[in-house]
Design a protein that fits this description.
Blueprint lengths: L1 H22 L25 H11 L3 H9 L9 H26 L2 E9 L5 E11 L2 E11 H5 L13 H14 L7 E6 L3 H4 L5 H6 L6 E4 L1 H12 L3 H25 L1
Parallel strand pairs: 1-4, 4-5
Antiparallel strand pairs: 1-2, 2-3
Helix pairs in contact: 1-2, 2-3
Length: about 260
Amino acid sequence: MKQVTENRERLKPILESIIFLGRQNIPLRGHRDDGSLNLDDMPLSNEGNFRELLRYRAESGDSKLKEQLKTSGKNATYISKTTQNQLIDCCAKEVIGVILERVKSARYYSIIFDEATDVSHSSQLNLALCYAFDNHRLQDFIGFVDVHHATFEPSTADKEPTVNGKVVGQLLLSLLEEMGLNLLDCVGIGTDGCAMMVSNNCGAVVEIQKKAKNASRYPCFNHALNLSLSRSSAVSSIRNAIGIVKEVVAFLMHLRREITS
């Protein structure tokens, strides 16, 4: 138990640093994020926010962290990028656990989701839950899911499996069931208006409503506004007005930069 307590105390400042950077929306890694952390000499290059924060804490009097970084073996410093990801995953599970407890206490909830291909050509699904808690309407992000990785088995086939509305809908249903949420308590589905989401034959919304029978579909208002502006741009007067608004916004942003500098 003494050894367990000591190990937990060693992890505490590292975990606190990760949480601090996460809460402040500061990226952790630098260009080089490997190897032991040298506290005796200042590095010639910036080693990234996480390692520099640990160095600052150690130099500012955090004796436990300093001892951990100086005496631990290279395979037990707990500051590698792999350990960082593991600790971030632990934090994510704790946060999602709190959100799910709130959703279950509220009972009724809505889901908001979208699917898009990122720069690495991976199909990413993002999910958020909407619910009422403590007389406030909350909308909490749950996470990103790689659709191909979560849905399809690894295949050696030349043709990549196709992602469609049915696949996305079934994936969302499995995610909600894994989180322990009652599908009959889902009362709303928020999506954009693309065919993959709203098709009556194979859309994601229709697939979800097969089990979430009380859920109604609500369009994304930002997406609807964007489509309305795009289509209304065919009218010359509206197109000119939008152009003037853009110029005014650009002028105000330039003026703000001039004032602040």
